[in-house]
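Lab notebook: predicted structure, single chain.

Context: the supervisor wants predicted structures on file for every construct in the current expression panel, including those that have not yet been purified. This is the next one on the list. No modifications to the sequence; it matches the entry in the shared construct table.
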Amino acid sequence: MTDSCSNIDMADRVRGALYGLLIADAMAMPTHWLYGGPRQVQQLYGSKIKGFVAPVSKLPGSIMSKSDTGGGGRGGFSGDVIGNVIFHGKKKFWAPGADYHYHQGMKAGDNTIEALLMRRVLSVTAKAGGKFDKEAITNDYIKFLTTPKTHNDTYCPTAHRMFFANFAAGKPPAQCPDNDGHNVDTTDPFITTVPIALLSASDEQASADAREMVLLTRDSKKSAPFAAKLCTTLRGVVRGADLRTSVIALGKELGYDVKRDVERGGQDPLQACYFDQSMPAVLYMVYKYSGEDDVDAANFETAVLANANRGGENVATGSVIGALLGAAAGFKNLPKHLVEGLAPGARDEIESEVNAFISSTPFLK
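Prediction complete. Output recorded below exactly as produced.
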């Protein structure tokens, strides 16, 4: 690492991780699940993504039109989990053949549902004085999603639809996490583990808590153990560990040689949400765009733009990419125009939430 990067304090790296996550999520939001890749991005938006952009309203072939409104995966339109229990007023956008964009109606710079849930975790843990309070997080999760007008996203991942189908059926919250065997083992749950990874003073406790955070909302025996490994990597980067070396080590946990893959060249990965595809894509993008010596404003921006323009499942993966790159760069090295352009209607709230979290977390004491 160069002196400029090694001199960044840990609090600034934590701030960088949180803002990096939110920036990457918002940047990728308009091109989420564009499986036509860069060509489809340019067809829909007239050019490459060059900054925060509002999504188009319609998206021909949208999987949302084939998704189950009463539970996980694909299925019928008869269920009312979407529209009645959660995502109030949004069911019409899921109608068969309607072909709406997954995030229609959102504004440039807005965050998707998983990033918004990450912000809720920030708030709850800060109010708990830096404690991982599972019951408080779960209660807040339920209240946030079952209360109308708390957010303006349209697409709801399978894990949340299954949780609230069980909740609506009268199951207690601890019995609501579920798995359809196909759409739950993804990168999505890692987003809310980022603040949990940066909470405890103990490395072992932080890893255990990150694993438990996944299991609060989905029964993913594949994602949960890896959350603990990702936690260790993120904490190391916040302490100043070399990002590329850290990513190579994390890749070995998956049997994936990221350095070799990047050096082969080729296009950035275009992948679905499933864990076995999405996590290697995260490592590829982080390694490729992190730079030889450190992460600065230029290659952070290059990375989040490249992630937005590759399409595919680039929102959840983008969030993890942004968190790792943001932690390596530190907040003071993030491009100011990206920080200022993020979530225009919630800029002050985000700053307050991040400040409160940083002030409360035992990791920084």
